[in-house]
From TrEMBL:
It comes from Littorina saxatilis. It is a multi-pass membrane protein. Residues 175-227 form the Cation-transporting P-type ATPase N-terminal domain. The keyword Metal-binding applies. InterPro entries: ATPase_P-typ_cation-transptr_C, ATPase_P-typ_cation-transptr_N, ATPase_P-typ_cyto_dom_N, ATPase_P-typ_P_site, ATPase_P-typ_TM_dom_sf, ATPase_P-typ_transduc_dom_A_sf, ATPase_P-type_domA, HAD-like_sf. It holds the Pfam family Cation_ATPase_C. This is Cation-transporting ATPase. GO terms for molecular function: ATP binding; ATP hydrolysis activity; ATPase-coupled monoatomic cation transmembrane transporter activity; metal ion binding; P-type ion transporter activity; polyamine transmembrane transporter activity. Belongs to the cation transport ATPase (P-type) (TC 3.A.3) family. Type V subfamily. Keywords: ATP-binding, Endosome, Magnesium, Membrane, Metal-binding, Nucleotide-binding, Phosphoprotein, Translocase, Transmembrane, Transmembrane helix. GO terms for biological process: autophagosome-lysosome fusion; intracellular calcium ion homeostasis; regulation of autophagosome size; regulation of mitochondrion organization. The chain crosses the membrane at residues 39-58, 207-226, 232-252, 407-428, 440-463, 955-974, 986-1006, 1027-1046, 1066-1085, 1097-1116, 1136-1161. Gene3D superfamilies: Calcium-transporting ATPase, cytoplasmic domain N (3.40.1110.10), Calcium-transporting ATPase, cytoplasmic transduction domain A (2.70.150.10), Calcium-transporting ATPase, transmembrane domain (1.20.1110.10), HAD superfamily/HAD-like (3.40.50.1000).
Length: 1218
């Protein structure tokens, strides 16, 4: 009974959650249309003159509540969808899809709420789940943001439609090589939809409707209608023209951006061969591909329109659209050794052809086709996810925008008070009702200016334009303001801090378990296993006659001066196989000897970041056996080698290279049994080949710093901005680069965090804190050697390292020609530190990706400390980079990220400001893209961000003061039942205010990045006091001028005005207030330390001079035609002394306004007072920093163990450490 009751309760639920725990988590509510409520809704819409329709357009959830009844999700025909930020709300209709199949096979299943499949459900039986979503032969579903969600009656919830990329074994994919029948394809096409990424480009008419129906323009339309009723024809007409031009420009830019995005993502409508069940192949349009289709990849290449898994043959693919790297990647077929694994596009990406990537070449044997199984189509592909990230970006949460809404509400309250005052005055004076209504409504348009939202974006628009001139392109302008508040910046290493290319430094051979002297020219190596490893262990290929591939592989292969040939016609000597052949440039190669020295590459295991290595199986002409050659991360290769082949000082020698920033690759090989045939090699598992290897030596390459890196890091540190390195390289290399570029200063202490997950021998996860060698650590040279020969060998090899570094040293400064900080190396005396300014030594953590994972999963309470104290994060996977940035954001940092696009896309999207140094299409995922391939763009973006933020504050304050100045003027005039004329309003609003608002933001960014950061809140005490004091002195000066006017004889003897605007009050208030608009603009045009001085903004300065002169001319030298045109009183008949006095008082306002702004915002005394009164709560990261200092953390020399119940205890590994 209890189970039945629980099932009934879940079935009757009207609310649910989709994608729980993810960034795209959605809350859904079910509604069913109600005829009576719908009828009443439209009656109310007619009675409200359409206002109700406008309200529900802005608030879609209100439409559901007014027209529908909330009901159980299974019975809903309308779904209300909200994101977890409550910023994107949509109403979608539930569809009933008719399918021709009775049920689907394993290609369709449903996820649990946490995104994982039900562990109790056998993957082979998941085809029954699709039938559970069917009602009377129909499937209930809805589409939201290009994703489809289907009702599952077994789990009584809507779930995202799955494809072959979820909960599908590799065996299932390999067994589907026969493809689908036409009936199956048609049925799936109904469920999954077309395989297309069609980006809608709306018509101008539709864009116009959407633009005009925003609250901003509706308010403007209502204001224009009011002004027309009030006979302000000129003013209303000009505002209408300006707004129309603004709308037209906005529509043009919006449509242009959509067309650009559509063209960027568009593919040609072409046909492709697909397997048609057991009947061979047929040709169908690529738009009709569905998950489960088996496609034949064209031999001459193509652009993929779906995500597909290779099951036969290999492909050479350019994935620059996704990774930002235009280096060709070899894709190999899925193998039966991986049958038991669940397919994952991320884990098995070496077998996956992703949508949007370019297949350059295919490789196959004989007449066989290169086949791939379609796993994802349309917007569910990797390319589709990228497009969705652009179309529906993660909402930005910036305090400035929240505060601006609060301030507008404050202005609305002030408008209400003004309306009450005016109403009392008009009733007391017996004014007509229609005049009262018009004046009361007019107050709202004055205190809440329609141009306020546009004025707030002026600084951002100018900053975007200046960034473009610097070669930095921004696709998300609101992110520019975030750049102004960044206090932590993360950098990728390779290609970002260091040069893209590597330089060959040398090869360190190993023989008889000893390292021999380094060979700087690998082509002089003897023909043996080490040379063959360099020649064959790579993924190079020939494309259009040129050798292409990974830059490291190219440098390695070119250094040995060998020749590579792709498969040719003569294949008999390789057991009818068509391998890639490598041979040296030598006489026996090209003079036609009978048995030339050639090596055939029989099979290739491509590089995988998961296993940190690659390997090949080769056969050399004249030999009766095959060989395995492997290269990769030294620590990984060492673990695969026979221990008796490793030199005893392996770790010591490796450390000496990596600590100096060299890129070190380990090389190893293994002879295979002569009985092993080619067919066995093609099917054998990778891990069975990559074991029991014989260590061959080290490949050492230089990865030099870019010359701009060190100065930029120094600039950021001077500005008190935390710098962090996130790389996939070795931790010793990363620490060395961090020291060389100044992230870690010479006297700083670096603690390496080593993490070990639970295993069979150690069931408890553990963390070790190891102190990295300091610059002068004698252990670098004083390690004991077991024999004199070893010592001699090591010195001979390492002395050349010292010579290389000494050769790079010059007297030009802290950096040598290579861009490295120069540490002259003498291994007999230890490292020598360079002289730098005095500073407080810091402690840095260097964390490996494995340690980061262990801390995250087993020591979550340590994660904040590790993230806060960590400076170097090495061996980090793409998802770990993203997780680190999200953690830093959670702890209160405003985080920037700079990467070259390769494996950095997720992190670039997650950061508040992501800057891509790649011009590839992957850069569309980053808010900023720099054409200049170095990190100087970081400082530029931050300077412009600070300038834009300060400009936004200035514009906002100016628009607020403009409203208050006019508000005070109007209230004074309403007291006397008068008002400004049509053209006087036009002069103030259009000529003065609009000109100033547009040009105010044109001031450029200050050339230096200072330690102070601009404020992020409008409601800070300094801003509030500044605005209130400016309002107070405005009211005081206007009232003072009014009282001075009322004392004049001509005022007392004046006749009753013929028109409402024909009064001395309106004339004098208009002229005096026109100076005030200009004065506050000057007061709010702040210069250093975030913007250049005001005089550098020449257009603004000229406009100020012209406007001030024009107002002075109308006051001091009035002309009768102008007075008549402006509906002013005959000021030219009044004594000059009176006019000069008004001018002097108005000019005095400029001085007092500037003085007040300096006193309440910029003076040191008031800043101290604000800090004492506000008692701002510390950011979370500062609290964590204080905790670290108080606890004297981390515990160097100790090992932390995680018990089964996650309680930790420490084991002291070094009594000398605290």
């Amino acid at each position: 009974m209890n189970g039945s009751a629980s099932d009934s309760a879940s079935l009757l639920q009207s609310k649910g959650v989709l994608n729980a725990g993810k960034d795209d988590e959605l809350d859904i509510t079910g509604y069913r249309r109600d005829g009576l409520k719908t009828f009443l809704f439209y009656v109310l819409a007619v009675l409200s003159l359409g206002i109700l329709l406008l309200v529900v357009y802005w608030k879609p959830e209100l439409e559901c509540q007014l027209k529908c009844k909330e009901c159980a999700l299974y019975n809903a025909d309308v779904i209300l969808v909200k994101d977890k930020f409550d910023q994107q709300i949509g109403v979608v209709d539930v569809k009933l899809i008719t399918t021709t199949e009775e049920k689907y096979d394993v290609s369709v299943s449903y996820q649990e709420a946490d995104g994982a499949g039900d562990p109790q459900t056998d993957i082979g039986d998941r085809d029954t789940l699709i039938s559970s979503s069917r009602v009377d032969g129909k499937m209930r579903c809805f589409d939201y943001q290009h994703y489809r969600y289907i009702w599952d009656t077994q789990r009584r919830a809507f779930k995202e439609l799955e494809d072959l990329s979820t909960n599908t074994t590799n065996k299932t994919i390999l067994d589907s090589s026969q493809g689908l029948t036409q009936d199956q394809r048609n049925s799936r096409l109904i469920v999954y939809g077309l395989n297309a990424i069609d980006i809608e480009v709306k018509s101008y008419w539709k864009l116009l409707i959407e633009e005009v129906l925003t609250p901003f323009y509706i308010f403007q339309i209502a204001s224009v209608v009011l002004w027309l009723f009030d006979e302000y024809y000129y003013y209303a007409g000009c505002i209408l023209v300006v707004s129309g031009g603004s709308i037209a420009l906005s529509l043009y830019e919006t449509k242009k951006q959509r067309i650009t995005l559509r063209n960027m993502m568009a593919t040609d409508d072409t046909n492709i061969l697909v397997a048609d069940g057991a009947d061979g192949f047929i040709e169908i349009p690529e738009r009709e591909l569905v998950p489960g289709d088996v496609i034949a990849v064209p031999a001459n290449g193509c652009v993929m329109t779906c995500d597909a898994v290779l099951i036969t043959g290999t492909c050479i693919v350019n994935e620059s659209m996704l990774t930002g790297e235009s280096v060709p990647v070899t894709k190999t077929p899925l193998t039966h050794q991986e049958d038991g694994e669940l397919y994952s596009p991320e884990i098995h990406k070496r077998h996956t052809l992703f949508s949007g990537t370019h297949v350059v070449q295919t490789r196959y044997y004989g007449n066989s086709k290169v086949l791939a199984v379609v796993v994802r189509t349309g917007y569910c592909t990797a390319k589709g996810e990228l497009v969705c990230a652009i179309l529906y970006p993660k909402p930005l949460d910036f305090k400035f925008y929240r505060d601006s809404v609060k301030f507008i509400l404050f202005l609305a309250v002030m408008a209400s008070l003004g309306m009450v005052y005016s109403l009392i005055m008009y009733i007391r004076n017996g004014a007509p009702v229609d005049q009262m209504i018009k004046r009361l409504l007019d107050i709202v348009t004055i205190i809440v200016p329609p141009a306020l939202p546009a004025a707030m974006t002026v600084g951002t628009v100018y900053a975007q334009s200046r960034l473009k001139k610097e070669g930095i392109f921004c696709i998300s302008p609101p992110r520019i303001n975030f750049c102004g508040r960044i206090n932590a910046f993360c950098f990728d290493k390779t290609g970002t801090l260091t040069e893209d290319g590597l330089d060959m430094w040398g090869v360190v051979p190993v023989a008889d378990k000893h390292f021999h002297e380094v060979q700087h020219d690998p082509s002089k190596l003897d023909r043996g296993a080490l040379l063959i490893c360099l020649a064959s262990c790579h993924s190079l290929t020939i494309i259009n006659g040129e050798l292409s591939g990974d830059p490291l592989d190219l440098i390695m292969f070119n250094a040995i001066k060998w020749h590579l040939e792709e498969p040719g016609q003569d294949t008999s000597k390789y057991d009818t196989i068509m391998p890639t052949v490598v041979r040296p440039y030598s006489r026996d190669t090209f003079l036609g000897e009978e048995h030339p020295f050639e090596v055939g590459i029989i099979r290739q295991f491509t590089f995988s970041s998961a296993v940190q290595r690659m390997s090949v199986i080769t056969r050399t002409i004249g030999q009766d056996h095959m060989e395995v050659y492997c290269k990769g991360a030294p620590e990984k290769i060492a673990s695969l080698c026979l221990q008796e082949t490793l030199p005893h000082n392996f770790n010591h020698i490796l450390h000496k290279y990596t600590v100096q920033g060299f890129r070190v690759i380990a090389l190893a090989y293994r002879k295979l049994d002569a009985k092993i045939t080619w067919h066995q090699v093609q099917r054998i598992a990778r891990d069975k080949m990559e074991c029991d290897l014989e260590f061959l030596g080290l490949l050492v390459m230089q990865n030099q710093l870019k010359p701009q890196t060190t100065p930029v890091i120094h600039t950021l540190q001077k500005a008190n901005i935390r710098t962090v390195m996130i790389t996939g390289d070795m931790i010793q290399t990363a620490v060395s680069v961090a020291r060389n570029c100044g992230m870690v200063r010479p006297n700083d202490k670096v603690i390496i965090v080593n993490g070990h997950p639970p295993d069979k021998e150690n069931p408890a996860a553990r963390i070790e804190w190891e102190l990295a060698e300091a610059a002068e650590d004698p252990e670098l040279v004083d390690e004991e050697e077991s024999s004199a020969n070893d010592e001699q060998s090591e010195r001979g090899e390492l002395s050349q390292v010292g010579e290389m570094h000494r050769g790079n040293h010059d007297d030009s400064g802290p950096t040598g020609p290579s861009g490295f900080l120069c540490f002259p190396v003498d291994f007999n005396k230890g490292y020598q530190s360079i002289k730098m300014l005095e500073y407080e030594p810091r402690t840095h953590l260097a964390v490996t990706g494995r340690a980061f994972s262990v801390v995250t999963n087993h020591f979550p309470e340590l994660l904040p400390k590790v993230c806060i104290l960590g400076t170097v994060f090495a061996r980090m996977a793409p998802d770990q980079k993203c997780a680190l940035i999200e953690n830093l954001q959670e702890y209160g940092y405003i985080v920037g990220m700079c990467g070259d696009g390769a494996n950095d896309c997720e992190a670039l999207k997650a950061a508040h400001a992501g800057i891509s140094l790649s011009e590839a299409e992957a850069s569309v995922a980053a808010p900023f893209t720099s054409r200049v391939n170095n990190i100087e763009c970081v400082v530029t973006a931050m300077r412009e961000g600070r300038c834009a933020l300060v400009t936004s504050f200035g514009c906002f304050k100016y628009m607020a003061l403009y409203s208050f100045i006019q508000f005070i003027s109007v209230l004074i005039l309403y007291t006397f039942q008068t008002n400004l004329s049509d053209l006087e309003f036009l002069y103030v609003d259009l000529i003065i205010t609009t000109t100033i608002a547009v040009l105010l933001g044109n001031t450029g960014a200050y050339e230096k990045l200072v330690r102070n950061k601009p404020p992020d809140s409008l409601v800070k005490m300094s801003n509030i006091l500044s605005i209130l004091m400016q309002v107070a002195i405005t009211a005081a000066f206007q009232l003072g001028i009014l009282f001075y006017l009322m004392e004049q004889p001509f005022y007392k003897n004046d006749l009753e005005p013929l028109k409402e605007t024909d009064t001395w009050e309106s004339t004098i208030i208009f002229l005096s207030s026109s100076f005030m608009y200009i004065a506050v603009a000057i007061s709010f045009s702040k210069g250093p330390p975030f913007r250049r001085p005001i005089y550098t903004n020449v257009p603004f300065l000229i406009a100020i001079i012209i406007l001030y002169s024009l107002s002075a001319f109308m006051l001091l030298a009035p002309q009768e035609p102008i007075e008549h045109f402006m509906d002013m009183k005959p000021l030219h008949t009044i004594d000059f002394t009176f006019r000069l006095t008004i001018f002097c008082i108005s000019s005095a306002f400029l001085v007092v306004s500037g003085l007040m702004e300096w006193l309440f915002v910029d003076s040191g005394l008031m800043k101290c007072l604000y800090r004492a009164l506000e008692r701002k709560q510390k950011s979370r990261y500062k609290v964590i920093q204080d905790t670290i200092v108080a606890e004297e953390w981390p515990p160097v020399g100790q090992t932390l163990l995680a018990s089964a119940n996650s309680d930790e205890f420490a084991v002291n590994m070094n009594n000398s450490e605290h």
